[in-house]
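Tip: read the tokens left to right.
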């Protein structure tokens, strides 16, 4: 299909003309469509209230929904306004990512700017900027300083999303059981019965449209969740508060984050999800050579299993000798990093309570930090330094520069941060404006010292990696750790096939796959029962997760002794962490998904496919391979007698010749998966 092309320069001229006072005719409604003409956004005023609406291919997605704000000590904004001006623009460009699930992004949109002014004094003004892409839409507010509008304390953003039908929503709670850490199990239900939920919120509409509500370019604002109301299809923006209840403090002129709605006809078309990146400013780091996607091992799972401790004592994990063992293993097995947790002073006793006791420079006596850093360097391995803050934010910020300067001197280029606690000591929300500023400050400060960041208990991803590619990965969902100690017996087998279509649409996740001792029997000799916490996964599924759950840093998470004499470990040695392209081959939310990714700058593909608790088969066409070329598929499949419950480690490794005409017949065990490497035939 030939796409209509907007001559950007002439649009600019029209835009300038439209902005001249008096020239822009005030209209009640304005409309902008995506380059392919399928997504349309209408912006208008009804009985004085500013609203927008969204359609896809003539189907209503968002019915007219309110826009506006409320403030402390000032009248609400948006409910007594008229349209005063409008302008149009657009862009059609392609740019590269230094790393990613794709190498290049085609950014193509039409933009509409709609100016609003209050009908009566103080005649404050704001602009709603809408961008319509083929893959969805985004809109944001620009608050002008007109009408004496200066410092403000926003008590709510009143943006609403009124769904055109009672879509099936895939959601996690915003506030329970762990406020604002996104570490909940997903549920699905009609949108009319959901409470306050996190984004990305994936909605399968009765019309067949799939919509994902999220936000982009969150810099100095409160994180967004969505409040539902019983028997209503209207979701309202809910912002995480400061300790005193205010949501956002600012000064006009002021720009809000984008509200985004990804739109697709099939769930398979949701990934790769690039809309959020397209709505962030371009890269701010010129030389990115020190930012390296990598696989890593680490002193980590052992603490979650109580084999090691973070704090001092006879089982302290982060000793010099143990760390060298992990560095050696990494160097010998194609992993480029070693993570060490529990190396620094502050872990003894109740570290969550003693949040201000962490030092980020002072190691425990049995850990020779400069020594292990030099040893790692000599082996070509990056030490990944762990910084758990326990939400002692001021304590961490005080040490940021000295700690990062030290790591830089030691040749460390990556850290893992952590924020285990519900609120700051002062009572600010985990995802409110205070924390949004903090997370950004850490990334920007780290960039100065050439350090990349992997954040646990983060703010959700809003595409900041485009601007700051040292923002490598983050948790922000229920990861593997819950399979060590999660009260429910670990994550259910469907979990990752939901994550793929929800959380993963916002960006990379440090899930930490690769547990091989799936019955967790090494320490006791006795396998854990299916009701006790353990990965509810087969071994082949653990491998498939490296391809399915995208992250530029992927851990080989198990104790390294569990990789001893394991033929299946070859897949972890081989699998790539940086990609040219990504294709979803098949999927149904909560049931199964199969993804193909092409290794960056190499004639090599990987396929990862996973199922939920159900055994099932899939026929996967390899039509993504170039025509007429022969490849070898190295296949890591569930053995015929495998199942997550009884026999999770049964795996069958085989090879077969394939071409783009091959259909691979994939057979999944319950809780199973399949991991495939495709290389050119010799
Ligand atoms: C929670 C993180 O998700 C986990 O990876 C880490 O080991 C602990 N916090 C301790 O910081
Ligand atoms: Ca966590």
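Filled-in amino acids:
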């Amino acid at each position: 299909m030939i796409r209509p092309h907007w001559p950007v320069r002439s649009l600019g001229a029209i835009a300038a003309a439209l902005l001249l006072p008096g020239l822009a005719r005030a209209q009640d409604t304005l409309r902008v469509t995506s380059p392919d003409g399928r997504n349309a956004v209408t912006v208008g005023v009804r009985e004085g209230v500013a609203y927008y609406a969204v359609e896809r291919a003539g189907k209503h997605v968002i019915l007219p929904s309110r826009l506006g704000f409320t403030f402390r000590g000032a009248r609400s904004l948006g409910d007594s306004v008229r349209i005063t001006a409008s302008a149009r623009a657009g862009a059609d460009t392609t740019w590269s990512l230094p790393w990613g699930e794709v190498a290049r992004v085609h950014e193509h949109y039409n933009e509409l700017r709609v100016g609003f002014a209050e009908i009566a004094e103080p005649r404050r003004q704001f602009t709603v900027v809408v961008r319509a892409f083929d893959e969805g839409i985004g809109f944001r507010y620009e608050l002008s300083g007109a009408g004496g509008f200066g410092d403000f304390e926003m008590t709510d953003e009143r943006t609403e999303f009124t769904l055109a039908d009672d879509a099936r929503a895939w959601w996690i709670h915003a506030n329970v059981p762990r406020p604002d850490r996104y570490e909940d199990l997903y549920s699905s239900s009609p949108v009319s019965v959901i409470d306050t939920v996190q984004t990305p919120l994936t909605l399968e509409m009765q019309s067949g449209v799939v919509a994902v509500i999220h936000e982009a370019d969150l810099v100095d604002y409160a994180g967004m969740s969505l409040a539902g109301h019983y028997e209503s299809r209207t979701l309202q923006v809910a912002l995480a508060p400061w300790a005193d209840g205010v949501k956002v403090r600012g000064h006009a002129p002021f720009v809000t984050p984008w509200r985004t709605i990804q739109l697709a006809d099939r769930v398979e078309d949701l990934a790769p999800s690039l809309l959020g990146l397209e709505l962030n400013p371009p890269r701010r780091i010129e030389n990115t050579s020190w930012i390296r996607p990598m696989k890593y091992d680490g002193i980590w799972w052992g603490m979650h299993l109580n084999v090691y401790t973070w704090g001092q004592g006879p089982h302290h994990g982060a000793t010099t000798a143990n760390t060298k063992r992990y560095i050696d293993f990494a160097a010998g097995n194609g992993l480029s990093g070693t993570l060490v947790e529990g190396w620094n002073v502050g872990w003894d006793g109740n570290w969550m309570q003693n949040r201000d006791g962490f030092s980020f420079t002072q190691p425990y006596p049995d850990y020779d930090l400069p020594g292990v850093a030099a040893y790692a360097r000599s082996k070509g391995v990056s030490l990944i330094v762990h910084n758990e803050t326990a939400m002692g934010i001021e304590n961490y910020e005080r040490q940021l520069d000295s700690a990062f300067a030290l790591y830089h001197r030691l040749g460390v280029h990556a850290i893992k941060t952590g924020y285990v606690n519900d609120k700051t000591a002062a009572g600010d929300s985990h995802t409110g404006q205070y924390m949004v500023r903090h997370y950004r400050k850490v990334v920007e400060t780290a960039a100065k010292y050439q350090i990349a960041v992997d954040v646990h208990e983060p703010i959700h991803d809003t595409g900041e990696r485009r601007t700051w590619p040292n923002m490598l990965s983050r948790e922000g969902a229920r990861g593997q750790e819950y399979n060590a100690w999660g009260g429910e017996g670990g994550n259910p087998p469907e979990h990752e096939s939901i994550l793929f279509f929800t959380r993963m649409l916002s960006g990379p996740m440090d899930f930490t796959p690769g547990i091989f001792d799936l019955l967790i029997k090494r320490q006791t000799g006795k396998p854990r029962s299916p009701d006790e916490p353990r990965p509810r996964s087969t071994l082949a599924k653990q491998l498939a997760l490296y391809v399915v759950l995208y992250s530029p840093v992927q851990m080989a998470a198990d104790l390294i002794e569990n990789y001893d004499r394991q033929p299946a470990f070859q897949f972890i040695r081989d699998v790539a962490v940086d990609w040219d392209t990504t294709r979803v081959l098949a999927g149904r939310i909560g049931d199964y998904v199969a993804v193909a990714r092409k290794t960056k700058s190499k004639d090599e593909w990987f396929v990862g496919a996973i199922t939920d608790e159900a055994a099932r088969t899939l026929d996967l066409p390899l039509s993504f391979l170039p025509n007429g070329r022969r490849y070898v598929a190295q296949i890591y499949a569930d053995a015929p007698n495998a199942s997550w419950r009884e026999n999770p480690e049964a795996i069958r490794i085989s090879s077969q010749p394939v071409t783009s005409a091959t259909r691979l017949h994939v057979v999944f065990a319950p809780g199973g998966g399949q991991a495939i490497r495709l290389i050119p035939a010799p």
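The domain at 489-506+526-548+570-682 is CATH 3.20.20.70 (TIM Barrel). The radius of gyration is 25 Å.
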